[in-house]
Amino acid sequence: MLNIIIAILQILLGIGFVGFWIFFFLVENKNPENTELYLAFERSFPIPDLGWITPSLFISAAGLLFNEVYGIFFCIISGSALVFLGLLDISFNVQNGGYKKSLSDTLMNLAINLICVIMGPIFLYYGWTLITL
Description:
mainly alpha, 83% helix
């Protein structure tokens, strides 16, 4: 049952990543109020997010749903990638005032960062517990 819950969370996160990038390129990327520093930072992430983290989340979810060993492997990989992404984003936001923008931007940044640094360790721990059973 826990495999199903973790897999659903991974699928939702993967869809969230795709949705974020659609929103970013349709809205945020064209917003003249965004600084070049912010845009350059964000534009460096579509390939790792959509080329590594998102596929890892989907592959893990499929593996967990079908009780395949690769699901455990990709659960750990996606968890690690989420931790890295969350910490990198937090570091940028702290250093560059990302939490001092409008209330909506601050809440969105905090939500994304917290999701990454909370779900990442959960996936890491869950994958590890499956290995050690």
